[in-house]
Write a structure and sequence with these properties.
- It is a single chain.
- The strands form 3 sheets. Strands 2-1-6-7 form a 4-stranded antiparallel β-sheet. Strands 3-4-9 form a 3-stranded antiparallel β-sheet, covered by helices on one side.
- The chain starts with 6 loop residues before the first helix and ends with a strand.
- The protein has 3 helices and 9 strands, in the order H-H-E-H-E-E-E-E-E-E-E-E.
- Strand 6 and strand 7 form a beta hairpin.
- The protein is an alpha+beta fold.
């Protein structure tokens, strides 16, 4: 299961992601150690994402960061049972964060599309 935020996103907070996000990549087996070039090579679908697609709201004493879902992405590869699939949010120059996706078999037949559900991350208050 891949779910991470790079140090720069953690240090600058959710507004940094909102201000810099430009694209979401659907990838196989992304890692926190991966740079943008590696994420692109692991990607089999992508879609433009803008700051307007990101909301930061109060959730009790915490914050909830939500990235809108996207539909109708055309995959360029297949995925087999057991391959780890995740959505990696990036700017034009860096990886901003990764949210695990439901792993599934993708056959990449003519007309196949995939949907990215809304991504949500809770940022907990200090305790």
């Amino acid at each position: 299961m891949a779910q991470f935020a790079p140090d720069l996103t953690l240090q600058n907070g959710p507004q940094y992601l909102k201000d810099n996000i430009t694209i979401a990549y659907v990838c196989k087996a992304p890692s926190k150690a991966d740079n943008l070039a590696t994420i692109i090579t692991k990607s089999f679908a992508s879609v433009a994402v803008a700051g307007a697609d990101v909301t930061i709201t109060d959730s009790g004493d915490n914050l909830l960061l939500t990235v809108n879902g996207k539909t109708g992405l055309d995959p360029s590869a297949t995925a087999t049972a057991g391959e780890d699939i995740a959505v990696v949010y990036c700017s034009a120059t860096e990886v901003l964060g990764c949210i695990d996706a439901t792993d599934r078999i993708l056959t990449n037949e003519e007309g196949d599309t995939i949907d990215i559900p809304a991504g949500q991350v809770t940022i907990n208050n200090w305790s």
